[in-house]
Amino acid sequence: MHRYREFLTSLGWTVLILAVFVTGQTIPLPNLDVSTAQDAISHVTFLRLFANVTGSDFSNQTLFSVGMGPFMSAMIIWQAVQAVGDEAISHLSPHQVSLGKYGITLVLAIAQSFQVVYLVRGSLDTFYFPGTQINIVFISTIIILVAGAMFVAWLANLNAAIGIGSSVALIIPGIVRGIPGNLINGFGDTEDVPLKITATTLTAAIIIGAIFLVLSVITNAAELRLPIERPMLDQEHSDSYLPIKVLTSAGMPFMFSSSLFMLPRYFVNQTVGPTTPLQHAIVTWFSYRTPQGILVYALVLILLNYAFGYINLQPSRQAKTLRESDDYLIGVPAGDATEAVIMHHFNLLTFISNFLILLVGVGPLIVGLWYPAAVNYSLYLGSVLILAGMVGGVADQIKGLINKNRYQIFD
What we know:
It comes from Levilactobacillus suantsaii. The protein has 411 residues and is mostly helical. It has helices at 5-24, 34-42, 45-52, 69-84, 86-90, 94-119, 137-162, 172-185, 199-221, 253-262, 277-285, 291-313, 315-324, 336-361, 363-368, 376-403, and strands at 223-229, 240-245, 328-329.
């Protein structure tokens, strides 16, 4: 039992944290007409897509509706800043780093909360500041949502410290919950054709999803290992390597590609439709059902795959870490030469992973030019790829917690 004690303790904390998170997503916002608010949000497709992969729940206006969106975006922004300005970031204390991350989270939480409240403003009841005729329901609702988002960020950090699955544990339930809707409704725009669920289509979806899940697990685990020489270690224990995953971006392109791609569509009135040449161009080039739109979406996926892969790997940081520890890639001088070799392999692996990304994201769109319902599989399989990467990371952590007590340095 001693072997599983740490795992069971961490699992218990994660269950408790998830219970608090789920409970917060059932507490409705005060002074709000829920039915009309849901109607207002349902027409904003990119929010639904963003919510599916960030643990948010915009379909129900609750204390934790904003969810993990600001925190996740802040972590990505911080990683990008760290990749660009590693020298400056390395001199910050842990307290300053924490303040920076929470500061970015707060700014994004305010912006996203304002966006949500503005969209449902017609559903808000009046609430006057005591003794005045000043209606404060708009600002008070924003404050409640921001407070909920910051509390969720604290829960995510708490789970990373004492639970299982780091911060992604709070995202996984939302992704699982959104997969059936992604398959049936697709991207949710006016051009989408809902997939009719019959015995045949359900069986096909399960088989395709299972096959792709296996492929995703294999791809997420695949890595290139560059041998490292560690002169400061005893020769018997000096064999080591630098792993570079084939899918360095870990499926993150699918977390933001859809909402990013659909943003230009909101410059076009969704009810009236395009009325100017510019609006017609936007509808043509940012549609999942035109060759031009499919090309643009493919470019978005490729760019995000490269950007997130670079942020996750950070070749310059890897080279710097090796140099500072007096380690080096075998046959490669330390410093710039090491960074160049890491970049070369990263570019090669990213080129290879682009084929998988395009197969998942663009393949169904091409088929959809002839069979419209196939478009839904782009979002469906993308969610499976994200889920496989996250679950794989959680499984590795669980394995480590279980096995760490099997080894003893001293008898």
